[in-house]
Amino acid sequence: MPPSLRILLPLLLAAHASSALAFELEEATIESIHHAFANGALTSRGLVELYLRSIASLDPALHAVIELDADGALAAADRADAARLSRAGSGALPPLHGIPVLIKDNIAAAGDGGGLLNATAGSLALVGSRSARDAGVVERLRLAGAVVLGTASLSEWCNFRAPGIPAGWSPRGGQGLNPYVPSATTCSSSSGSAIAAAANMVAVTIGTETDGSIMCPSSFNSVVGIKPTVGLTSRAGVIIISPRMDTVGPICRTVSDAVHVLEAIVGHDPSDAEATRMASHYIPEGGYKQFLNIDGLRSKRLGILRKDFFRFPSGSVQEKVFEEHFNTMRQMGAILVDNLEIPSMNVINDAVQSGERALMLAEFKLSLNSYLSELAISPVRSLSEIIDFNNKHPIEERMAEFGQSYLLQSEATNGIGPIEVRAIAKLNKLCKRGLEKIMQVNQLDAIIAPGASAHSLLAIGGYPAITVPAGYASNGVPFAICFGGLKGSEPKLIEIAYSFEQATKVRRPPVLQHSVI
To answer: Which position has the higher pLDDT, 90 or 456?
Structure first.
């Protein structure tokens, strides 16, 4: 158990959240929380205390949380409660008012009246670092009224330390576990965010994705993940791998909650100026919540990507469930265009052949060194210093065999040169001849693929996706359905995902063993 949780236990045992006793925490949504706030059944402080208690009970087994700012969160919750009382009947409060949030441990939070949170990407090298300001998305979360509770665990360096390291593992957080089937993967790299949301440690979490890191953990942990169009959300104050591909998005238990959070965090940020300025014209007037349409599947043209994506054994639960889902979509008025194939998918799925790896290695060094240079305090100021730190502080013995080859290869790069320029050109060609062409030729509103199987297809072009729980395999491991589209297609994807979710209502909470606290 992390020291912050051990210190917290006496506080939680002594706390009495009597106003929260009538509130049902399991599977609570933003809407149900706001309703409880409004009718006096719950306060924001009471909710924070309940979530802190849930984390203290569950996290020693699941390893979803790296660090908590209990003092800061409770102080922010008290301010939210005071604001609610003072403005009773006088107007609307911010959309996430008083709602606790866990942010992935590569997102900077400068503190909110309590202790500052580290943003370490799971690495011991960055323990003690301090950001001069909140990341752009954290600033927007606070403006929306959210209470930043702490940081969620992840695969170290967003799964970019070395190949083969287990998904969901980092030196700071240990090995995250799937709350449904502990022996199953949590997937990379926003694993803690997905675990925490799935296990009801919090209603709202934030993840990041380069290539699969929101889609995959959301799929394997039976939660909803939104991977926004690159640039729709700011990456300022975030440790990223690739400006071309990295995006910040919500991981929640319902499409509605994820959309509420998405609406709160999108927008132009001068600190991530080029990407957010270009993407800001995609934001619809009136926001995203208007697309939570229960009839959203009607008349949508959806392309089913069979080859290279649907690889389930014949007669498996997954095969049967997906066919049932396709029939449901047809009954809801969707037009399914079946058996579509993406050309050169074998190349797209091979990061070396596509040029993705070469570009990521160069971009990671540039992005990381830039991030480190802007920190107010940091024990390391460059990727080379991180490599030196790792050499002096070997990771645990069972992980030592994996080393830090991606970090070493990245350090050997020298900016965006001829190799990277050729990689960008090849990726652009794969996008135009791949997803963009199949969408245009078939006049599709979205493509359908199982789980995170389309992660590279969507990553290389900065395209958006929403994953929604679709079922549970015979061994109990969750699986999802993915709806993806072209840049800026979030309104259509939200309509489709919400309509599918409401028609199927697949998600069920995991059965968990609580520690006695």
So the answer is: 456
